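Our preliminary data section would be incomplete without showing what the modeling component actually yields. Below, a chain of 421 amino acids is followed by its predicted structure, encoded as tokens that our downstream tools consume directly.
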Amino acid sequence: MKLLAFVALGGATLSAADWTSVAPREEIKPRFSSTSDGRLVIEHDAREGLQGCWRREFAVSGGKHYEFRVLRKVARVKQPRRSAFPTIQWLDAQGKRVLDDRPLVERFLKSATPWAPFEYPSERSADSQGWTEFAAVYQAPGAARKAVVELHLLWAPGGRVEWRDVSFREVPPPPGRKVRLAAIHFRPKGGDRTLYAPLIEKAAAMRADLVVLGETLTYYNSGRTPAEVAEPIPGPSTEYFGGLAKKHNLYIVAGLYERSGRLVHNVAVLIGPDGNLVGKYRKVTLPDGEWNAGVTPGSDYPVFETRFGKLGMMICYDGFFPEVARQLTLRGAEIIAWPVWGCNPELARARATENHVYLVSSTYEDISREWMLTAIWDHTGQTIGLAKEWGDIAFAEVDLDARTRWRSLGDFKAKIPRHAP
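Predicted structure:
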């Protein structure tokens, strides 16, 4: 089936865009249609296993950068992240796959350059009308002459998807989103939060954008119980660190115990450069020593917009379980700040590499114990910033727009929402 739809190309709105309906096999092909205003529709009946997409080719030049955008609205789709998404594939002039000559993770290169895999554009939040934007900028592989855009609906019995406002255009190379990450390696005496002030100043002198402090820092070495040190959020500690964040024009993540009525939570708070509380995360997984001390777990995985990107937080014992970091990743986290009393550093490496996030940890463990590190891990699980002595700062500058590409998988982080169970 071919139809006329509207597509924005190179900044102009064109009609007579030639989209083709495609399915892997006729027996699992869904119903395709269009609306009077040019929306592309795919509908599934009650049978399982249906899948199909709208497909269109765009001409490209190898090495150039292209911005893709589209809006999607779903109805009765149980798992939109797995069932309704766009893809892009790079082909040569003859319609064959091309080799991916873009930067890969060199330590994984053991043989010839791999084929360019599918691209999975990033999903943004939905608007009040239920339209979700997908958008990304890609560099075309050197031999690419065509970009094949596909708008999918698969495995959604009774579901429906509408696609509109497709845009595919050449753009200048993106400038990147550089961010300087820092974590303080320190044991506060008697839970005195003021002892962090000179260390935060030290991180600010390194032009840090984000500084991560330790877990339950007013409790550590205080001799008091969690309930005794717990305070409202916002409260005295967030006000104190807010003053430092505003003074140094940076974000601070600090671990505290929160008092909320009769409940006590282990929390990580995010303080913005304006000195105000951006948000908090309540620790979901509680080990022995917390749950039996009357601490209550959290139940949500918030991700916060900052001036440099999307930030999630987890706390100590959370790192022993893959679910917490994965939920933050599925919600868009690019960086996970991790106040952590102690943990297996191999699990830190795993959480970073399985989610392709930057992980920033601040611990009370001495490096000689080989149990946890105050460090920064990159998308491949490598330690790119490490503090070795008390009072040191783990520091690294990263580019949040830089894609980490693996052999045969390409940009694995983009695949996580589509392929994760």
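The radius of gyration is 24 Å. Residues 1-16 have pLDDT under 50 and may be disordered. Preliminary results of this kind motivate Aim 1 of the renewal.
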